[in-house]
User: What shape does this take?
Amino acid sequence: MNTVVITILSLSLIGALAAVILYLVAQKFKVYEDPRIDQVEEVLPGANCGGCGYPGCRGFAEACVKADELGDLFCPVGGNACMGSVAITLGKDAVVKDPEVAVVRCNGTPEHRFRTNHYDGATTCTIAHNLYAGDTGCEFGCLGMGDCVDVCDFDAIHMNPETLLPEVIDDLCTACGACVRACPKDIIELRKKNKKDRKIFVSCVSTAKGAITKKACDVGCIGCKACFKVCPHDAIVVENFLAYIDPVKCKLCRKCVVVCPTNSILEINFPVRKLKVVTELEEK
Amino acid sequence: MASKASIKILPVPSMVKIPVAQHIGTPAEVVVARNDQVKVGQVIAKSGGFISSNIHSSVSGKVQKIDKLPDASGYRQSMVIIEVDGDEWLESIDRSDTLVTEISATREEIVAKTLEMGIVGLGGATFPTHVKLSVPKGKKAEVLIINGVECEPYLTSDHRLMLEKGEEILVGTQILMKALDVSKAYIGIESNKPDAIQHLSGIASKYDGIEVVPLKVMYPQGGEKQLIKAIIDREVPSGGLPIDVGTVVHNVGTTFAVYEAVQNNKPLFERVVTVTGKDVKDPANYMVRIGASVTDLLDASGGIPDGTGKIINGGPMMGKAIGSTDIPVTKGTSGIVLIPEDKAKRNKIQNCIRCGKCISVCPMGLEPYLLMSLSELSRWEDVELNKAMDCMECGSCSFTCPASRPLLDYIRLGKSNVLKIIRSRNK
Assistant: This one.
């Protein structure tokens, strides 16, 4: 009986002593953490994709709390709604940005762009890009080994086995920019998201001279400036034999699409054109 | 294969495309314009910095244009395209075959000459020779090593050169010795070339301080660090240069070019290129003008045989396959190797079985499997810590891997990223 009592007492004593020591140590080495960091992290999507430029959502939350103004701090995944709640939590001004979506600027499918050699090395685009220009005549085009697919945390980009090009699923894309950074050829661009996911863009990044581009690929931009001349909104610039449509200035009028002789300007998610409009424009 | 026949001279092609970046370092700056008439040996692009080199015209004729054309990698780079008209050499070049053994040039003149004549390392790395000859302050060269190992299997250009231009190579060695102010030089030759060893030893006895060293046949003994270890048993520290252990290494091809530059005033506008392969009709070594296309070279050796799966620019271990033969021969082109289709493809990549073969075979003592995993995970800082920059890309690891893993591809990727980190750190 005595042994039982002694055991209980001594163990309780050790427990109490340990509790006191732990309390004192916790007080001594206490790290103050702004409770707002937790609050901000709560409203963030928790994808930890790194799209904001910070290591994970926690890192971004810390940066938001630390910063005087939210300014450049923006979570592309959560978008304006998420940044609005962050702003309310912290009592700072909200940043409003147009939602964006990743766009693949190469349309060199096998039928448009012939293979000139066969690549047999390690199957990542970065290695192939460091090694040589690629298995087609175009040194700027998509290598088709899917580095962009590998890095996507949202399952929003996939290789199409027929075209051998990546395709973005607009609804899943969060514009985190991982694929943009992964692509060694700088083909993927984040562009403004329009109503009904409508898109008009030059699906080519070749800065080679027109004749060289044309020889390598049927649908490459040859820098003829036809689109530049027809654009009523000054949204198109042609530099280094390559046209670029400014996504902000573009009003989606589709005039450039019709005049492009190589069909390198794509229109996506638009209703089918009325035949009359097309013929009218062609006559001009 | 190609080592039996003597070096053939490839006829001057009708057009040459001469790239302005044929060496490691800053590309040269073009000094000719469209429609200019040029002679053989005339400077067409001037050295663009300390680590850079002059580029000379290899033919006489009219500059057709200066344009961007695909090089061996398929990427476009600046080239001077010259339409050939006759074969008129600069008067200053001594074209006679007589051997000039007396070295009248001073040390400074020799270094200046190698710069002026655009001499770069012809073993494959194309490092400007004048930089190697300018020993940095506080360091002293004690021995000169001439690399007659022939960097890779299949290639025989250095072998033929040693047999045919032995005397010139020995005088070239003397010139390099004078430039570096050393009294001892070794010529390392692997023992699978007994004729070259015998030939050069015979001549070397006439010269003071030059010794021919027969070496065991081993790949990659043509790497300078391996050669230094084999000949004088000194180890170059990690990240260091041969000069850190008192040596300078030059290839026999470079030595011959130095002889021609200093004694004959002849710029580097032609080189010996091996064309070989199992089914090649006429495998041989050719003296080729820089800028001649690989197509010309292959036509001369009997065309591309049927069933060729891969054409390699360089040797089978370190060379890179080319996507088109319409590319120019440059100062760094040591050989063109044609591989039949059934041997051209890589095996299926399998998982690493941790056998450690890549580690035991690595001449630099690295851990290729580890470097590959780190590269796959994009852990570039760790790639650097594991001495990826010591890798000389000999390809032994990929060659030996029983799981056919693309070790070298990933190490190259790691190296290029580490280089970016190092550069951004130095800024």
Q: What stands out?
A: The first strand of chain A starts at residue 100 and ends at 104. The CA atoms of residues 43 and 250 of chain A lie 33 Å apart. The radius of gyration of chain A is 28 Å. The interface with chain B takes residues 116-117, 120-122, 124, 126-127, 130-135, 139, 208 of chain A (CB under 8 Å).
